[in-house]
Write the structure tokens for this entry.
Amino acid sequence: MAGFESNSLKVYLLRHGEALGNVQGGYYGRTDCPLTEKGRQQAERAGATLRELRAAGPGRDLLLLTSPLERARHTAEIVREAAGLDGDFLVEPDWQEIDFGRWEKRHYQDIARQEPAAWQRLCDDWQAFCYPQGESFRVFSERVIAAWQKWQLLASRQQKDILVVSHGGVLKVIRLFAEARPWDDFWRLRILPGELQVMSSDAM
């Protein structure tokens, strides 16, 4: 069931800082790539913002969660220090970015020119399209949501809030599902590298 399953839950969604793949462009999903210097600075600012947000009012302990990919884990490490967080981040493998298969590290315009039929299938039904040797958005969103439900339940039992450090696609799926919004809003919702967004069940 979409939406929040527990009351008074606050969720901090943080997209990793700018990484090499963001600079080079194209499809970067499962490919591991490091943060740029700008990305590290973004992570430090996000950590400082998180510290300020939590200092502004009474807050619960945080359940710290991260994608296993380097750009997310490094962001999480920087944020933990900048925000003065206690405890280690738990790694959630299902919060890796979508698997683009053999389209990884390729540019959109090159794919459209070199594989026009596959590109058209993506444009016609982006949710059902399976990236060659990768996964479809539907499979991707199902694994992201299953992990979200698991961790939300644990946070509720432990009376904790949640910090998720992950990727743009992952965080948008979590937000859309939690807020019971249509999937077409995926293309309208923006979460920039290093951006921290906050969801609260009290606001639902």
